[in-house]
Write a structure and sequence with these properties.
The complex is a heterodimer of chains A (298) and B (377). Chain A has 298 residues and is mostly helical. Helices cover 70% and strands 0% of the residues of chain A. Chain A is built from 12 helices and no strands. Classes of the chains: A mainly alpha (298), B alpha/beta (377).
């Protein structure tokens, strides 16, 4: 390179820089050809749409009981998916139950992601004694199996949606914290963080611009895989009578109540289970696809 | 540009590289840009469960030298001698065990001195690994603009400055500004790193193996860029490398490190033509020659350097030195006044006629290097 070349200054329109294809665009492009992931994304969107618009899609009240039409098979009269042991419409209850299950699946993971990654980033970036204090505390919670911990917390605090959400949130903070701490620790020792420190930037600024962008992908992928776990745990809680209280429909609770009727109407009884299975499978497949699409090359 | 372009026949380093009237100059021409005094970094070795301190790796041990305004100080030494630790200490990226820095007359992080943030504005660093030193999730123009943004420069102004800097290091901002690091080659990334280091308008640039990872042809381009930038931006360089040829090409003065200590320091021409320390002599002899007739048959120094956790007694080089005598193991050689940049110093008993070494006072070039005795441990 000659001095002359370096000296040539082209007129540069301020602020108008052609941007190269960004990271998100790359992810989107990769996802566009991943038909399996797209299919499961579609399934999730359908389930979510059905749950959100449940009141519009279901002509029958999910809480209306009828002694005359108990445990009717799929397609009986205007009961699209049959009725349960109290004669309530299964189609309506499944859609309404989906609202609760998705709520219990997504909200605890979302809250735990925020809290857990904050703790993890602080622990990972600060290191030393702060790291030990945060991570060992988290380890205490992590030592319990998640089902046991969820049952213990919501058992102590009693049933109800709010307590169930709280219990699940507490269950998911430790694993997310650990993932973000590990990711932060890897990033912290890279030269670009040192370069940022050398520029005199404050810690919060370095974390915001340099650390978060690099740990977002692993944390996001991990959290999305936890959604299916959360749905299953929520179902388990309401199956045990914790979490969602009757008569609000919820897949786990429906499964628990219908299991006595398994010999009378096996197909109808299996429906909540199938719903749980399909939803959690879809979230798992989606997170797997995202992991591949968001794979970084540095 | 030939290697012999920089001709330093005079013993006194040239100060005329400092242009008159740099508005940032505070101490005047004669005031060294950076005084490094008794710098030390010991990494504790911890034991078992409770982390009791068992000892320390003396990565940098009692290092003193000065950096003159406008010069390029080359730092050489083999792997593990503390070069990179020295760079990080100068940049204050890790806490010092001991010692202090004086930047252009102002003590760093002392009462009535320069704050760390101010110091870092004036001293910047280019890292060796050009890929890990750029955030993979940030367009390079934002990487360059990050430093000024941290110093409260407005976003648009910082980006404009970053674009101008990219232009200066030979990357068209319109073409490259929005790109991510993985879309650039190694040489281009290193140019971005240089631009990023320059964004805060530093006066001292620490180049830690800045071209070592690059192909020879690309390294040559980057070296020429560095020379150009130094002239145009009134920079002072600390150039750290294990490549003696590159250091010779760029440096005005040379500092040789061995096991965390400065073993020799002096004007580049003197150090290269007449090394005073046997270690420097061996380093220079280990350079591969372009002439097949001058092929090196035998390694000038054998063995690995001793552990810096447990350095040898006396002179630290005596375990591998071809001229080692009893006195070398018994007492550490004296080192002259490291604050005088003009003199050529070596930490060796041979340079001190009163040291008691049988060959003391004789010029090193007149002594023949023999293979070091293996029993000399």
């Amino acid at each position: 390179m000659t001095d002359a070349a370096a000296l040539s200054v082209s007129a540069l329109p301020a602020g108008a820089l052609p941007r190269s294809r960004g990271y998100l665009a790359t992810v989107r492009r990769r996802l566009r050809y991943d038909y399996v992931t797209l299919f499961f994304l579609l399934v999730i969107l359908l389930i979510a749409g059905a749950a959100i618009f449940a009141p519009l899609l279901t002509p029958i009240d999910p809480l209306k009981t009828s002694m005359a039409f108990r445990l009717k098979p799929i397609g009986y009269r205007n009961f699209l998916l049959g009725t349960d042991e109290l004669g309530r419409d299964m189609f309506s209850r499944l859609l309404h139950g989906g609202r609760m299950s998705l709520l219990m699946g997504v909200v605890p993971v979302a809250i735990a992601s925020v809290i857990g990654s904050c703790l993890g980033v602080i622990a990972g970036y600060a290191g030393g004694k702060i790291n030990t204090a945060i991570m060992r505390t988290v380890d205490v919670f992590y030592a319990f199996p998640s089902v046991l911990l969820a049952v213990a917390i919501s058992g102590t605090m009693g049933g109800g949606v709010a307590n169930g959400l709280l219990a699940l949130t507490l269950v998911f903070i430790p694993p997310i914290c650990r993932v973000s701490e590990t990711a932060t620790n890897q990033v912290r020792h890279l030269d670009f963080v040192d370069a940022a420190r050398a520029s005199g930037a404050a810690a919060y600024r370095i974390i915001f611009y340099h650390v978060l962008s690099n740990i977002a992908a692993p944390v996001f992928i991990y959290a999305s895989s936890l959604i299916s776990v959360s749905i299953l745990l929520a179902a388990g809680l309401s199956f045990l009578g914790l979490g969602v209280t009757p008569p609000t429909p919820d897949w786990g609770q429906m499964l628990a109540n219908l299991r006595q009727a398994i010999y009378v109407q096996p197909l109808v009884c299996a429906l909540p289970g199938i719903a749980i299975f399909v939803t959690s499978l879809s979230f798992n497949m989606l997170s797997d696809g995202l992991r591949q699409a968001m794979d970084v090359k540095s | 540009m030939s290697m012999t372009e920089s001709d330093f026949t005079s013993a006194r380093p040239r100060l005329d590289t400092v242009p008159a009237g740099d508005p940032r100059d505070r101490g005047g021409k004669a005031q060294p840009l950076l005084i490094v005094e008794n710098l030390a970094k010991h990494f504790p070795i911890k034991n078992g469960l409770f982390g009791r301190k068992r000892g320390a790796v003396r990565a940098v041990d009692d290092v003193s030298f000065v950096i003159l305004k406008g010069e390029t100080l080359g730092v050489v030494g083999e792997s593990g001698c503390g070069k990179s630790t020295l760079a990080r200490l100068l940049m204050r990226l890790m806490p010092l065990t001991d010692g202090h820095l004086v930047f252009d007359g102002d003590p760093v992080e002392a009462l009535r001195g320069l704050s760390l943030k101010e110091f870092r504005r004036n001293v910047q660093m280019v890292f060796q690994d050009s890929s890990s030193s750029l955030n993979p999730r940030m367009p390079i123009i934002d990487s360059v603009a990050f430093g000024p943004r941290a110093h409260k420069v407005k976003r648009s102004a910082a980006r404009r400055a970053a674009a101008a800097l990219l232009e200066k290091v030979g990357l068209s901002p319109a073409m490259f500004g929005g790109r991510y690091p993985h879309e650039l080659s190694g040489g281009q990334k290193q140019r971005v790193n240089i631009a990023r280091a320059l964004a805060l308008e530093p006066r001292l640039l620490i180049l830690d193996e800045a071209v070592s990872a690059l192909d020879k042809s690309v390294a040559a381009q980057v070296l020429n860029l560095l020379r150009y930038l130094k002239r145009h931006l009134n920079l002072t360089y600390v150039f750290i490398s294990h490549d003696l040829g590159v250091v010779q090409y760029l440096s005005d003065r040379i500092l040789v490190m061995y096991l965390g200590q400065v073993v020799e320091i002096g004007p580049a021409a003197d150090v290269y033509s007449a090394p005073k320390h046997p270690y420097t002599q061996a380093l220079l002899a280990s350079q591969l020659s372009m002439d097949p007739g001058r092929r090196i048959e035998q390694a000038p120094v054998s063995g690995d350097p001793p552990s810096p956790a447990n350095p040898p007694s006396g002179c630290r080089f005596h375990t591998r030195c071809p001229f080692s005598e009893a006195v070398c193991a018994a007492k550490a050689p004296a080192f002259g006044d490291a604050m005088d940049a003009a003199i050529h110093l070596a930490r060796c008993h041979l340079t001190d006629p009163t040291s008691g070494h049988s060959l003391a006072g004789s010029a090193l070039s007149s002594l023949r290097i023999t293979a070091p005795e293996t029993s000399a441990a």
